[in-house]
Write a structure and sequence with these properties.
Elements lengths: L1 H9 L2 H13 L10 H13 L3 E6 L5 E8 L4 E7 L17 E3 L2 E3 L3 H20 L7 E7 L10 H7 L6 E4 L8 E6 L1 E10 L14 H12 L16 E9 L9 E10 L5 H18 L5 E9 L2 E2 L5 H14 L4 E5 L5 H6 L3 E4 L14 E3 H18 L2
Parallel strand pairs: 3-6, 3-7, 7-15, 8-14
Antiparallel strand pairs: 1-2, 2-6, 4-5, 5-16, 8-13, 9-11, 9-12, 10-11
Length: about 400
């Protein structure tokens, strides 16, 4: 079967490029999303090749598609997301018209995550043609809303649509198939508001400047001390000041200032501990500046996650990657977040693994090597037949 899989995937290079081109051409920038445009491509392919599927929408146009091959347990789920980030500036070509050059395909979503979806669609066709050889189920998910937290995508599918699995592989981590994501830092997004008192700019002593109070807090936050500073899988915890805004005019004392923070924290620390740390800083400021008035709201909180160390996917991924690429991927933890978090929370044994250069996601002139998409299809085919044999 190994040679059959390899030869089949190798024969499908043009089809992978064609599918990636169609998916890239579907403008699914989130917001607003419109993942239905990419789902149209996937649905047509499923229909053409007799693959059973369901479509799920929490909001019209924010569409998810799930294809089913085989039956029974175990269930292997592979999820690619169909939304993309805005193209931004600096493109040499139209970001939604793919270009093939020097063995790579260029376009928004080529690496994050539509190239991977094209590769998995071709694999799904092969699995359907060999369905009788599978003892279990393969689910291919085209998910919405990954770039904005997955409340309309994978989280919705798991919480409300009864999508489930025993194992999951999420091809959204890049690293050229040299890394297996077995854990992810917590991601806590905060909105901090400093409230002051408006006054005329010529008499600032009559008001309370919310911006100055925010600056004092932010200067302390630069030196925040996390409870957990190191972990064998992860780089140290981080805090990023993403945006800051305040005031309405030069000659008015600012009554309000807002700052948005991105905090990535390690397993062993909780959201509550991070928040208490920040609240203690606020309290220390109020001791010498009693008019300082701060408010914290949580925009998003994704707790740290880590797959079990006895995960059988690890050996299969390592073995088949070595057979195709001649190297064994290393286990690592991510600073970023993928939908493996939501899967692990549902007790699904999930890891991240896939093709693509780490620096390609979200940049101008995003691209992915076509050979990597082919090799990824081979590796995933071998994993699937081993897991569902």
């Amino acid at each position: 079967m190994k040679e059959i899989i390899i030869n089949y995937i190798e024969s499908q290079e043009e089809e992978i490029v064609r599918l990636a081109t169609e998916l890239i051409g579907a403008n699914t920038v989130n917001p607003p999303g419109n993942e239905c445009l990419a789902v149209n491509v996937v649905e047509k392919y499923f229909k053409t090749h007799g693959i059973q599927y369901d479509i799920f929408e929490k909001i019209k146009g924010r569409t998810n598609i799930v294809g089913y091959i085989g039956s029974g347990n175990p269930i292997l789920l592979v999820a690619c997301h169909l939304d993309v980030v805005p193209p931004g500036d600096g493109w040499n070509t139209d970001p939604f018209k793919s270009v093939v050059k020097n063995g790579r395909i260029y376009g928004r979503g080529a690496s994050d995550n539509k190239g991977q979806m094209a590769s998995m669609l071709v694999l799904a066709r092969f699995l359907k043609e060999n369905e009788s050889k599978l003892s279990g189920s393969f689910l291919l998910v085209g998910a919405a809303d990954e770039e904005k937290g997955s409340s309309l995508g994978m989280k919705y599918l798991l919480d409300e649509c009864k999508v489930t699995a025993d194992f999951a592989i999420i091809p959204d981590v890049a690293h050229n198939m040299r890394m297996i994501d077995v854990g992810e830092k917590g991601a806590l997004f905060l909105n901090i508001t400093s409230h002051g008192k408006q006054a005329h700019g010529s008499t600032p002593e009559k008001g309370t400047n919310a911006i100055w109070d925010m600056i004092e807090l932010l200067n302390q936050l630069k030196n925040i001390k996390f409870k957990c500073l190191s972990h064998e899988l992860f780089t140290p915890p981080t805090l990023n000041l993403g945006t800051i805004s305040g005031g309405v005019a030069t000659n008015i004392v600012a009554a309000k200032c807002e700052a948005r923070l991105d905090i990535r924290y390690l397993p062993g620390e909780t959201k509550e501990e991070v928040l208490n740390n920040i609240k203690e800083m606020m309290a220390s400021i109020r001791k010498h500046n009693p008019t300082a008035n701060y408010e914290i709201t949580i925009d998003s909180d994704l707790p740290p996650s880590q797959a079990p160390v006895d995960n059988p996917l690890l050996n299969l991924i390592a073995m088949h990657t070595e057979s195709i690429l001649g190297l064994k991927p290393k286990t690592m933890g991510l600073s970023g977040s993928t939908v493996t978090k939501q899967l692990i929370e549902k007790d699904i044994m999930a890891v991240g693994f896939g093709p693509g250069d780490e620096e390609q996601a979200h940049i101008a002139n995003e691209s992915i090597e076509i050979k990597e998409l082919i090799d990824f299809g081979k590796i995933m085919g071998l994993i699937t037949f081993d897991l569902l044999k």
